[in-house]
Design goal:
Elements: H1 4-20, H2 29-36, H3 43-68, H4 73-92, H5 99-123
Length: 129
């Protein structure tokens, strides 16, 4: 039988996978260009985006911990909502974004759905008591 705990773990694991994908960008400017559909010709932009990729890997670790250790779930929810909702807010504040960034928006929307699902399951589970 699938328990609330198992479904919460799956939710965090999916959010973790989505947040792990940008780590590919840390490898090179060419990978960043493929991920975001932007020319990365400036060393400053390259540094910031590659560092961002590493930070996403760190954030994803929290989600993986939360998937397998319930002590990390509350912080996982907080970090998840801050990360995802801030990107969605910034996305809607801009016009004429390219298809690659629209794909990032779609992935964040999927992550948000899983995070909301995990939140409701957590709130109605006996785990939080």
């Amino acid at each position: 039988m699938i328990t609330y705990n198992s479904l919460i773990s799956i939710s965090f694991f999916v959010v973790g996978i989505i947040h792990t994908l940008p780590i590919l960008g840390a490898s090179s400017n060419q990978t960043l260009e493929k991920l975001y559909g932007l020319p990365i010709e400036d060393a400053n932009l390259s540094l910031l985006l590659r560092h961002r990729a590493i930070l996403f890997a760190c954030v994803s670790l929290v989600f993986y911990y939360a998937a397998f250790d319930s002590r990390y779930r509350v912080i996982g929810f907080w970090i998840g909502y801050m990360s995802i909702l801030s990107f969605i807010l910034f996305y809607y504040q801009n016009k004429d974004l390219n298809a690659n960034l629209k794909r990032v928006f779609l992935m964040d929307t999927i992550a948000l759905v899983f995070l909301i699902l995990g939140t409701f399951l957590y709130l109605f589970s006996s785990e939080r008591n």
